[in-house]
Amino acid sequence: MGFIQKLKERYATKAMNGNVVPQEKIDNILEAIRLTPTSSGLQQFEVYVITNVDVKVKIREIAWNQPQVTDCSHLLVFAAWDHYTEDRINHMFDLTNEIRGFKNEGWENYRQTLLAGYPKRDPNVNFEHAARQTYIALMAAMTQAIYEGVDSTPMEGFDPAAVDEILGLRANGLRSTVLLPVGYRDVEKDWLVNLVKVRKPMNELVTTID
Ligand SMILES: Cc1cc2nc3c(=O)[nH]c(=O)nc-3n(C[C@H](O)[C@H](O)[C@H](O)COP(=O)(O)O)c2cc1C
Fold it and tell me: Helices in the chain by DSSP H: which ranges?
């Protein structure tokens, strides 16, 4: 089935039924995240996959008590790098050389450009840049989920500092950006499930300059 049809099918699930998503489907969703393009190919974030009930309960408490946090099967937490360091940049450039099996002058020059520019910037500017990349991965994850017949809810309704604390993210140089509970809709309890999707018309979205 086509991509547009899948986008029409997905919705921000408001109630989940607690059923477990098979590991193969979770693996495919994570693979979609892994394949997501990122600025300079740095993949400047990590994903925590939470099935632990106690941790889910703690996160729900600081996520506006949203039930999907505990009633999902797997709770994905996107966590962006808190800063760009030389080590982090070098790691991805070295990995590229290792996988491709050769060094390229243009690529090495680009490495030096990033090394000269990124680490000295304000950490918050770097975090915000890294955080934006997590949203590209979020969309990839939501889309793959719907191809897997799995529901999800993108969530910014939580206290990021509290999630950082619960998961010990800052010690790993990470900061949470967005959550994605993944699971199956509870048709009885979900007020959104049968409502028509609302999007503004194309002429309010697109300006064409010929
Ligand atoms: C980044 C982001 C954060 C969101 N945060 C929440 C949230 O905390 N809780 C929630 O129920 N929905 C959340 N939503 C869902 C949106 O409200 C929803 O995607 C939007 O109204 C469009 O509806 P649809 O996704 O069902 O098509 C979020 C969506 C995005 C993209």
Answer: 3-9, 23-34, 53-61, 68-71, 86-100, 105-117, 123-147, 160-167, 202-205
Q: Tell me which residue of 22, 43, 35 sits closest to 141, measured CA to CA.
A: 35
Nearest CA to ligand 1 atom 20: 12
The whole-number pLDDT of residue 59 equals 98
Any ligand 1 atom below 6 A from CB of 93: no
Q: What DSSP assignment string belongs to 24-65?
A: HHHHHHHHHHHT---GGG---EEEEEE--HHHHHHHHHTTTT
pLDDT-based confidence at residue 93 (cuts at 50, 70, 90): very high
Interval between CA 50 and ligand 1 midpoint (Å): 20
pLDDT number for residue 92? 97
* CA-nearest residue, atom 10 of ligand 1: 155
Statement: residue 1 has pLDDT above 80: no
Indicate if the pLDDT at residue 184 is higher than 80. yes
Contact 154, 14 (CB under 8 A): no
Q: From the CB of 50, is ligand 1 less than 6 Å away?
A: no
From the CA of 156, how far away is ligand 1's center (Å)?
A: 8
Q: How far is the CA of 153 from the centre of ligand 1 (A)?
A: 7
